[in-house]
Task: structure prediction
Amino acid sequence: MFIKNCSEKHLLEILAIMNEAIANSTAMYDYEPRTLEKVHSMFVERKEKNFPLIGAFDENETLLGFATYGNFRPYEGYKFTAELSVFVHTNQRGKGIGKLLLSELIKEARKTDIHSLIAVIDADNEPSIMLHKKMGFEFCGKISQAGFKFGRWLDVVFYQMII
Result:
């Protein structure tokens, strides 16, 4: 397994990983699958803003998972804070891929002027919460019933790392 920047040729694999998460989990609160156009827009935005979009690949260059960060909020005063996302293919979870990707994101943030990384996590997503805690993120808040999916209200928790 190796980590490298994702390119446009990986967008279909990114789309598949995201759409699996949308359909089967509360990792994303979307109801409808993402389109290739929307993923392409995310890719272009990350590139324009010099934000990372990295992937974990096997020896055949199959995408096992990806991670990125982007603007936390669209206001100038938040320009030093980024919200991160880490997604691992459903068949690859529990193998340490998320830890590798998150570690690489932190390294990338340290090379830039990012001061704070924020993870917004479904409150019932214990594996993600544990991963962020192990990597040094600290709990900094909870919003009860912030989302609604699969017929129920969902709470989100915020974890932060000061770089």
Q: What stands out?
A: The longest strand covers residues 138-149. DSSP finds four helices and seven strands in the chain. The two ends are 26 Å apart (CA to CA).
